[in-house]
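Handout, page 2. Input:
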Amino acid sequence: MDRAAYVPRLADKRIEELLAELPALLITGPRATGKTTTARRHARSIVRLDVPAEAGAFRDDPDAALRTLPTPALLDEWQAVPGVLGAVKRAVDEGTGAGRFLLTGSVSAPLDAPMWPGTGRIVPVQMYGLTIRELLGSGPRRPFLERLAGANLHEFSAPEDPPDLVGYLHLALQGGFPEAALGLSASARSSWLEGYLNQLFSRDVQTADQTRDPQRLRRYFQALALNTAGIVEAKTLYDAAEINRKTALAYEHLLVNLFVLEITPAWLTNRLSRLTKASKRYLIDPSLVTSALRLDETGVLRDGDLLGRLIDTFTAAQIRPELELAPFKPRLHHLRTADARHEIDLVAELSAGEIVAIEIKSTAAPGRYDARHLEWLRDRLGERFLAGAVLHTGPRPFSLAERILALPICLIWA
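Output:
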């Protein structure tokens, strides 16, 4: 694929729709996932606030500097000049009209602050890494969860040349960072990812927090990589990283703020009792898992537990960006009973409290046994349970039980 060509993103349509009605958008997400490249396509003027020569006027007098920009104006890496947020707020309060400002950034920490000036003025849009749907240019279609909700097998047809387990692993190791995924050899991609992590543990963390030790943070990140897509005791992680609980909590918060760690909360309902409240942790991109652990395809195939975690992490990374397309954005959860007798990888609550549930398996031939937790949940929720799916690495879709389908993972995008 031509690395210079623009790959249309799922977020493009959402950005276009919101800019037509709202004055300011903030595009957030991990560094190097294409936020700036995408935002440029919607802007008339661009200011890179991480370039000192361009940032000077915005440090000195951000209100005056904003008034000189043709709109929509893109303010790239806003966190380099935090004062620009107050200027955007004032401009939005004083002016009229939609489509005036786009901001991009790779740090979320200020967004949760009680006094953040963007509240009610700047609407966030989350971007993630490239999905296979975007890489293949699959075009507009209903999001996977929306199609699954119909529990109709006819919505899903077997692709002509589906990946097998090794094919899915190859896609996972390719990752979703555009610069690494578009045309780099495996060797060059490995070097790029190593550089990404080195910058994450040194420069990027300094942007968000001045007090972190890069080596201890790297060890904690490696512990997260080993346990991605899993429910693990916090003590297991901080013991592995040789840090204390307080430091581990600070590191977790930092990595979430840098958008490289996603916390998937437990799904709770008064229809079921004795559910665990513990969250699952996902590294945001599967390529970061193998880079942090210095493993290649062969190394992963020799570790069945890590292989399953990697396929789970990859699959979640394909579903997550589609959630941003929905006006009512369902959030991904997981479910586990306190006695661990029942566990479901992903649960998404749709409108009116209806749910779809997903199990992710690295098997090519799932059977009724693989759907047992989904059947348990269906029987307890009744009509509130719209559909379940066992996503697998085999070649064809088929029905497993009432409202429960076995679907190849590639049908998320194929």
